[in-house]
Design goal:
By secondary structure, the protein is an alpha+beta fold. The chain contains 7 helices and 20 strands. It has a 5-stranded antiparallel β-sheet, covered by helices on one side. The structure holds flavin-adenine dinucleotide (FAD). The site of flavin-adenine dinucleotide has 33 residues, from strand 3, helix 4, strand 9 and strand 15.
Length: 309
């Protein structure tokens, strides 16, 4: 890309990790994806400012990456900056009775470990989700126990877009209309979630830990957690009163394979990477399932995985 040398010069004082022509397969749970022109993992607010100024100067596209657990990157890669929110803000702090402020880069497993130590009831709903707090809010992630929006009070965001001349932190107190099933309705593609405030119910730490442990065991028994995937590929088609895995099973597609992408034998709504799957293999499998669901069962399946093209 013609702008990359200028970008490199503009970010000389970057204190986080910055790589050029970096394979996205390394940072995606799926282990799939070609190179990003720039892959930057900021550690400080100064790093964010440097990246922002460089983006304004060169005008490259930006993609916000959390922990990469719900993404399918293209085989061709991404011709811009992938801004990886992995190490920026990871603290958890009590801010009032039943309220915590958590960093957007914190992983769900660390948050749950702290919840089990301190007795934060209500957070068990996030058990087994391998993403970051920012990614979970962006996706309104959840389990059968509820979605993150059910315990979310507010978020702090900055906008990284071309229109924003400076990184101004915006605080938003959330209401129901900001979210629906696996969707948020308030973020622009270049908005970054820096922090979120969550509520919890004080509980005996041993009880919280017991619930989390039980849910982890259930996951291990029912999901192919030992193979790269993006979790559920399709949202549950609630209008038909079915789970997406039931649709795939009705179609007889469990275990069906294109290249190294396979519909998991263990869970029909997971497509796993058996080793060297390409994004085109996964996309072909998704297309096949969608077409057959529509033609044979009249069901419209919608993707939960975010597919970059
Ligand atoms: C084995 C497995 C099991 C899973 N189980 C579940 C489950 O039970 N329930 C569930 O809901 N999901 C599940 N998922 C999917 C995934 O973990 C969630 O969608 C999670 O919320 C994604 O978080 P992430 O940080 O990895 O985001 P990414 O995958 O990196 O990104 C997802 C989206 O969020 C945006 N984003 C990420 N971070 C930020 C940020 N800081 N600011 C602004 N936008 C951001 C990205 O731009 C992108 O659009 C599972 C995935 C796997 C691999």
């Amino acid at each position: 890309m013609p702008w990359v040398d200028e970008f490199r010069a503009l970010t000389g004082r970057f204190s986080g990790q910055i790589e050029f022509d970096a394979p996205l397969s390394r940072v995606a749970y799926y282990r799939i994806g070609g190179p990003a022109s720039v892959l930057a993992t900021p550690r400080t607010l100064e790093d964010l400012h440097l990246l922002h100024l460089a983006v304004l100067k060169v005008g490259c596209p930006v993609f916000v990456l959390g922990w990469g657990s719900n993404l399918l990157f293209p085989d061709e890669g991404f011709p811009g900056l992938v801004l990886r929110m992995k190490h920026l803000f990871t603290e958890v702090r009590e801010v009032g009775p039943g309220r915590i402020r958590v960093g957007g880069s914190l992983g769900a497993s660390s948050l749950l470990r702290i919840a089990a130590e301190r007795g934060y009831g209500g957070l068990e709903r996030l058990t087994g989700i391998p993403g970051s707090v920012g990614g979970m809010v962006a996706m309104n992630a959840g389990t059968h126990l509820g979605e993150i929006s059910g315990i979310l009070i507010s978020t702090e965001t900055v906008s990284f877009g071309q229109g924003a001349e400076s990184l101004e932190v915006k605080i938003r107190v959330h209401g129901e209309s900001d979210f629906s099933y696996r969707r948020n309705h308030f973020l622009s593609p270049s908005d970054l979630i820096l922090h979120a405030e969550l509520n919890y119910v004080p509980e005996d730490p041993a009880n919280v830990k017991a619930k989390i442990d039980e849910l982890y065991q259930r996951r291990k028994a029912t999901q192919p957690v030992d193979l790269p995937s993006c979790g559920s590929v399709f949202m549950n088609p609630k209008a038909w009163g079915l789970h997406a895995w039931q649709v795939v099973e009705k179609l007889g597609l469990k275990g069906y394979r294109i290249g190294d992408a396979q519909v998991s034998e263990k869970h029909g709504n997971f497509i796993v990477n058996l080793g060297s799957a390409k994004a085109s293999d996964v996309r072909a499998l998704i297309r096949l399932i969608r077409e057959r669901a529509k033609n044979e069962l009249g069901i419209d399946l919608q993707e939960e995985v975010r597919i970059l093209s």
